């Protein structure tokens, strides 16, 4: 049966006790979106701020003079990983994985939580990255060829010997002062780092059962993000400090966003279950509960505590786990 919030209840006693009073809750996508409308609206606001930060606000032009040019004469190279492909790898790929798992498990709540966390991580990372880029205004290693594309250097006649750039490509020159931190890398570690955390939870990586094959799947997205970072150094777009700072920024934001929607990956049997709540009206916070993790069953003989079996398809809809 359905209620006015779009929730469906099944009749058998799938929880031992608690706010659900013995009923399994199947939440509709409409109810989830209504409950998180404030979050989706804030994502829209942050996207607008990011577009302003990227396209309208110019970066700070840090002081560059003739002696400094010795460290800024690296050749210009085509990008090994184009900007558009980072969006595919860091956003589209995780989203498609969430879709595949939704088709398999039929958990609309898990799908919505996963995508909401990913979208939040990506948008916050983009906004933070471009804000820092514009404020720092660090020249890229190939700055010389962006400033003097014809190879003819010009400097002021005073003692400072500042550069007098005559760029041929205004867009490339605008980007010349955006070395720190790397946008490619922060995006990659935000999206793929989030995917690694998602895998770690779903595969119960730290359940102390010793299945080491899971480690490969959890670390594979991080490896891909790291390789993207290496290409940015090899293409002379960034220095190692730009890469390391961007990786730490992306991973930190990914972790914070993941934990808004999922328990710790060290939660053993609870890891990978989206937090429980009852969707409320638009703009409400809902009930995050005393039950932020699935209800506990009795203790196993080995001392482990496990979530109750909520039974069949209803369990998949509620938790996204088998």
Unreliable sequence segments: 1-24, 286-318
Individual helix count: 10
Rounded Rg: 24 Å
Largest sheet: 2 strands, antiparallel
Domain Phosphatidic acid phosphatase type 2/haloperoxidase: 116-258
Pfam families: PAP2
Transmembrane segments: 40-61, 81-103, 115-132, 185-203, 215-234, 240-258
Subcellular location: Membrane
Q: How would you summarize what this structure contains?
A:
The protein has 322 residues and is mainly α. The chain is built from 10 helices and 4 strands; from the N terminus they run E-E-H-H-H-H-H-H-H-H-H-E-E-H.
Description of the structure:
By secondary structure, this protein is mainly α. It has 2 domains: 1-34 and 291-322, no CATH class; 36-58 and 82-136 and 179-273, no CATH class. Helices cover 49% and strands 4% of the residues. The chain has 10 helices and 4 strands; from the N terminus they run E-E-H-H-H-H-H-H-H-H-H-E-E-H. It has helices at 29-35, 37-55, 83-105, 108-136, 143-147, 170-175, 183-202, 213-234, 240-259, 312-319, and strands at 8-10, 24-26, 296-299, 305-307. The strands form 2 sheets. It has a two-stranded antiparallel ribbon. Helix 7 runs antiparallel to helix 8. It is elongated, with a radius of gyration of 24 Å. GO terms for molecular function: phosphatidate phosphatase activity. The chain crosses the membrane at residues 40-61, 81-103, 115-132, 185-203, 215-234, 240-258. It comes from Physcomitrium patens (Spreading-leaved earth moss). Residues 116-258 form the Phosphatidic acid phosphatase type 2/haloperoxidase domain.
């Amino acid at each position: 049966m359905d209620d006015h919030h779009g929730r469906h209840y099944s009749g058998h006693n799938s929880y031992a006790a608690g706010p659900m009073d013995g009923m399994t809750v199947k939440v509709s996508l409409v109810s989830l979106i209504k409950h998180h409308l404030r979050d989706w609206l804030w994502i829209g606001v942050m996207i607008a701020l990011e577009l302003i930060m990227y396209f309208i606000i110019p970066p700070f032009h840090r002081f560059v003079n003739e002696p400094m040019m010795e460290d800024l004469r690296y050749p210009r190279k085509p990008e090994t990983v184009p900007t558009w492909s980072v969006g595919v790898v860091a956003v589209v790929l995780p989203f498609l994985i969430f879709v595949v798992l939704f088709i398999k498990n039929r958990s609309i709540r898990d799908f919505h939580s996963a995508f909401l966390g990913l979208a939040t991580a990506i948008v916050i990372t983009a906004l933070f990255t471009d804000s820092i880029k514009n404020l720092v205004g660090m020249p890229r290693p190939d700055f010389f060829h962006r400033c003097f594309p014809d190879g003819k250097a010009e400097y002021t006649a005073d003692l400072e010997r500042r550069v007098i750039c005559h760029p041929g490509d205004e867009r490339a020159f605008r980007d010349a002062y955006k070395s720190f931190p790397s946008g490619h890398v922060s995006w990659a570690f935000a999206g793929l780092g989030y995917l690694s955390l998602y895998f770690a939870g779903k595969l119960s990586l730290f359940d102390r059962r010793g299945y080491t094959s899971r480690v490969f799947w959890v670390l594979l997205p991080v490896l891909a993000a790291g390789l993207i970072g290496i290409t940015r150094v090899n293409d002379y777009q960034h220095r190692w400090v730009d890469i390391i700072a961007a990786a730490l920024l992306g991973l930190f934001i990914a972790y914070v966003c993941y934990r808004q929607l999922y328990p710790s990956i060290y939660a053993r049997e609870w890891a990978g279950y989206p937090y429980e709540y009852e969707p409320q009206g638009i703009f409400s916070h809902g009930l995050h509960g005393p039950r932020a993790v699935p209800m506990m069953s009795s203790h196993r003989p080995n001392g482990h505590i496990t979530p109750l079996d909520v039974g069949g398809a209803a369990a998949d809809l509620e938790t996204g786990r088998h």
